[in-house]
Amino acid sequence: MNLLTLALLILLFPFLAFWVNILLGRRLPRQGDWVSVLAVFASFLLSLPIFFRAVGIYNPGWTENPNIVWFKLVGMDITVGILANNLMAIMLTAVLFVTFLIHVYSMGYMHDDPRYSRFFAYLSLFTFSICGIILSDSLFTLYIFWELVGVCSYFLIGFWFEKKSASDAAIKAFVTNRIGDAGFLIGIGIVVAALMPYYTDPFNLQNVFAGIAAGHLSGGLLTAAGLCLFMGAVGKSAQFPLHVWLPDAMEGPTPVSALIHAATMVAAGVYMTARIFPLLTPQAMIVIAYVGGITALMAAIIAVVRNDIKRVLAYSTISQLGYMIMALGVGAYAAGFMHLITHAVFKALLFLGSGSVIHAVHTQDMREMGGLRKKMPITFITFLIATLAISGVPFTTGFISKDAILAGTLSFAGSNPQHLLLPIFGFGAALLTAFYMFRLLFMTFYGEPQNAEKYEHAHESPGVMTAPLAILSVFCFYLFFTFPSFNPLGGKGWFDHMIEKPSKAFEHVEEGELPASSPLLSGPTDHMNGSDNGEITGIEYANGQVAEQGHESEQEGAAGQDEEHQDASHTIAMILSLIVAGTGIFLSWSMYCRKKLSAEVWARKMGILYTLADNKFYFDELYGAVFVGGVMKLRLLLNRFDTGIIDGFVNATAPFLRGLSWLSGKADLHGVDGLVNGTAWVVGEMGSSTRQLQTGKIQNYLLATLAAVLIIILAGIL
Q: How many CB atoms lie within 10 A of CB 582?
């Protein structure tokens, strides 16, 4: 079975499951949950041949782009297909694996919901949409699926729409993402406008990279295009300053939180940034790195003071996504993508674990929990494993990926000392992550029960919910990403071999000097109009870097990423990451387990910082006052303009128009109607007079005839 057929089937199964459940779900056995579960499982099985094909080829530059012409428009042949490479193969398999487990978990968590079948219908549509993003080879189809994901998130976040908080959260998420998507659309417009004269399909990513390599889009316009495209990721992946929607998305069911905040919606922004990595200029990369760094540290600070178990995990997600974005910004491409995959597993486990706790105690407030490890041993053990992973403890996947990111930022700062803030952001967020995650663990599972009634009724979740937890916990161990290396401190395995940083499309020196083929841009491109430059088919690929072609690049990767510095920084970064993780865990243990430190005392000592964190740095208030309040004031201003100016003008002309209508009425009544009526009266009178001659009696007619004859005779005699 070829790649295109596999991709179509992967999309088809969840799409059909959506329609079956939305139309017939309530009439099916178990309200059709099995339809969605089997559909996503089938898609997962179909993703495995693609993954094993990539592993079998075992080439970091493997790329295939099968596609077909979808439709023709204004001289363009818009194609639809897939861009198959190692990035896509790994992402697709990971997403479908986690999504399948979330579907299974939902069978237990949502079993009593009155809209059970609709929930699974929405899950299927969401799965279809996110798979479309992963498979897309074109900015056109990517944008279609991008918006579908936004619609699905609106449905799922506001699933319990009878709660005002849930419906408000859905609207907030939808509107905030539209802001980012507006920038995304502008970026697509810039790219397509620049490449339309040269390619019949300027949306195709292969053609986009080739066109940039040929110099058809460069300089400040290329930087602007990259940053506008990145705006889509800022919205979808909840990065500063569009991060405000994601914590409120906790109003949706917990499986939705796991689905949105683990491997699907929020990960889509990071994945898209990795997809367009070859077109991002050093200037754009610096902006991306700082957006990620600021987000990572800021969200971690806010997470420290949250007491809602799901909101702690929500801000943790924002922070970890910031890590990934920062990694891509500094050129640590493989590290950023690895953390995307590892985070998908342990964050899904954390959210599903929190759902298991909520299912048992019926509250999300950690201050009402405590001591649950005895009541929920499976949930506790799996949650502990995920907490160790996200904190970056050795022997876990989180340690491998987070250490690689920190090494990348440290190496970047070594080459660019003016950007020393970036590793400070990274290590600071690592310290806080370990602290707030173990704070969550200790408050939930350790100590004395804080609510005796809730503790008394607490119980372990059913097998349909704990089985996904156990499976996910297994994949939190490092060996799955370092095999065949068994080195727990960062051994290079299959993942490091298959994922390498792609070359930059614009670093080609001179047009016409590009090689005939490349792992970055393999396959044909469609160069139009018989350009003298010939067909641009690739960029030379050498160990993830752009090969020299007549000159040395002044900057490598993201504003000067240097592999030698990264290797030299790895040991330092590993030692520092262990120190900060250990410090965070120790402080959390001292404060929330042993009670040697008082959280209340330290909150007072933190002063303004605690106040800012507790109020989420006042972003909601700021946006409410400036944007929401500004729009409301503009609405009032426009209303006054409408009532005072427009309506005033209309009302002022009313007397004149009424007089004109009265005059027109009189002219019509007495002039036009008078003439018509007068003519009718004359004709009527003439008819009345003439009618006297027409009696209808033959004797009258004979008498009249005789009288006329006599008159004629007499006239003749006389």
A: 15
- Helices 282-304 and 219-236, packing angle to 10 deg: 20
- And the tokens for 252? 């949706």
CA geometry: angle 275, 279, 281, nearest 5 deg: 125
Secondary element (H or E) of residue 414:
helix 397-415
b/e map 138-158, b = 16+ CB within 10 Å: bbbbbbebbbbbbebbbbbbb
Cα first-last separation, the chain: 126
Compute mean pLDDT per 10 residues along the chain, 718 residues long, and list them.
Answer: 92 96 91 94 96 93 91 86 94 94 91 90 94 94 94 92 91 92 96 93 93 92 96 93 91 85 80 94 95 96 94 94 95 93 93 92 92 93 96 93 92 91 95 96 92 89 92 92 82 87 72 40 36 33 34 42 59 91 94 88 89 91 86 87 86 84 84 83 80 73 84 83
Residue 329 contacts residue 230 (beta carbons within 8 Å): no
Helices (H), 158-281: 164-195, 205-213, 219-236, 245-248, 254-261, 265-275
Collapsing DSSP to helix, strand or coil, 326 comes out as: helix
Nearest to 477 by CA among 582, 408, 407, 401: 401
Give exposure, 618-642, as e/b (b: 16+ Cβ within 10 Å): ebeeebeeeeeeeeeeeeeeeeeee
Q: Which pLDDT value is given to residue 598?
A: 87
User: Of 272, 321, 259, 262, which Cα lies nearest the Cα of 125?
Assistant: 259
Beta bridge partners of 64: 84
- 429 phi, psi to nearest 5 deg: -65, -35
**3-class DSSP assignment, residue 240:** coil
Q: How far apart are CA 556 and CA 300, in angstroms?
A: 30
| Gap between the Cα atoms of 206 and 293, Å rounded | 30
Q: Are strands 541-542 and 76-81 parallel, antiparallel or unpaired?
A: unpaired
User: Rounded to 5 degrees, what angle do the CA atoms 303, 376, 345 make?
Assistant: 50
Instruction: Quote the pLDDT of residue 712.
Output: 87
Other C-beta atoms closer than 10 Å to the C-beta of 451 total 16
pTM equals 0.83
Structure tokens at 633: 């004031």
Radius of gyration for the chain, computed over Cα atoms and rounded to the nearest angstrom: 36
Could you tell me if 358 and 364 are in contact, meaning their C-beta atoms sit under 8 angstroms apart?
yes
CB contact at 8 A, 169 and 158: yes
pLDDT at 257: 84
